[in-house]
Amino acid sequence: MLTDAARRLAEAGVESPRVDAELLLAAVLGTSRAALLTAGDVPAAAAERFAGWIELRADRVPLQHLTGTAPFRHLELAVGPGVFVPRPETELIAGWVLERVAGQDAPLVVDLGSGSGAIALSVAHEHPGARVVAVERDAGAIEWTRHNARTRAAAGDTPVDVRSGDMTDPLLLAELDGTVDVVVSNPPYVPDGARLPREVTEHDPPLALWGGPDGLDVVRGLLGTAARLLRPGGWLGIEHADQQGASLPALVRAHGGWAGVADHADLAGRPRYTTARWTGTQLAGHHSAT
Hints:
Layout: H1 2-11, H2 17-29, H3 44-58, H4 63-67, E1 69-72, E2 75-78, H5 91-100, E3 108-112, H6 118-126, E4 131-136, H7 139-154, E5 161-164, E6 180-185, H8 198-201, H9 217-229, E7 230-239, H10 247-255, E8 258-265, E9 271-278
């Protein structure tokens, strides 16, 4: 059954057909992928459901929309239509945030464009003393942010403060101006017209993807928000596309007021996120609303 399913997915162009088939069967049976090795017969109803899921996956419905969950660091997050599915490479920037605040008793972290809540909820889970604010503008996505935040709080994690708002709004979280230790974001950064897999273009929300002609329109507004929110010496981390490993750091430097601008690769060696420290001063001609 798995062999036939994997062949069907491979013919449809799915990247990891065998793994996806195993994960879907495990989800149908309510077991782990490892437990499939010793599984007995598959009940007829489960086999029918599995066959239906394989056809949906072959039609490029994201695996995580079918299983309803996405793993992220130490968490299992609920995902589905209307929210960006968190990617494994984003775990690195969440880890970077945790390294920045490791020695602080009660750091204040703001996650802009939180989506499923992956970064914000990981920080709250792994640093229980942190105060974390998650901001999301998409009305569909924020329902997932809130759902996951409630689930993690019920599991005993420090509650995350979920806010509806636009990361480029010059008045966003104004009451926190100058007090935030880390601002982190996985913003919309896909250049207009870029070719993406059907799983992304047909199922991830457009607000989470597109960033204008060079993919950096939202980041331009985000920099002003971060400069306003951060305390002097506070940190900024922004995820970006593979091809923005030079353009995004250059944009941060040109904004003024940032020191130690650096770019970091993901586990595959591709440029993945830019970090910088806020000095508390800006170059002439710049102000925090730019």
